[in-house]
What does this fold into?
Amino acid sequence: MFANTSVQEFFPTPVWTIDLRSQVAEQLNQKLLADLERLTSPRPTQLELGGFWQTQTDMHTRPEFAELTSLLRKATKAALDFLQLEYRAFSITACWANFGPTGGGHSRHTHPNNYLSGVYYVRTPAGADSIDFFDPRPAAAAMMAPARQLNRFNGNQMTIKVHPGRLIIFPSWLLHGVPVNRTNQERVSIAYNAMFSDFTETMSRPMRPGNLPFQRP
Ligand SMILES: [Fe+2]
It folds into this structure.
């Protein structure tokens, strides 16, 4: 009856997963943990219940994190090349470490005024080793038909498992969040934002992560 059937995926949302070779990851993560220990000493003692804490956002300017910064730049360039974009230069506009203690999560958010964002994983206790992405089309949730099998066409949340040495890169406008850490170990990751340098320099200063673009005067 049907001569041809095809489905085209218009306007897809790319999320990149990049894994370092395990030996490279082990060495890098050991060094990162030691450098982060120095950077965050003394650690904050009073944490908000259910929350997490972050370093300052200038890690990409610190010489001890140069290896990581170079890796993030290479992966970002590869993502921009994949998208076949024309641009003069891009900048890492912020880079910071996230520490997720037991009971800590990170509610859904975006990274405004950036083009790509990413998270590199340093320590991921089993059970606190995922990141959630949410459907950026709010209207799609107006009719959620029951599905025989949830998949990327009918679902509105995608979860990626992560492990030390894994880097996830995604469009900065894509809603994401981190489930509550139900283990008794701390989760450690390093996040960053990247933006086209022309835009950063002339049009807009990047906002801190977690600031949705809704601000009361
Ligand atoms: Fe984020």
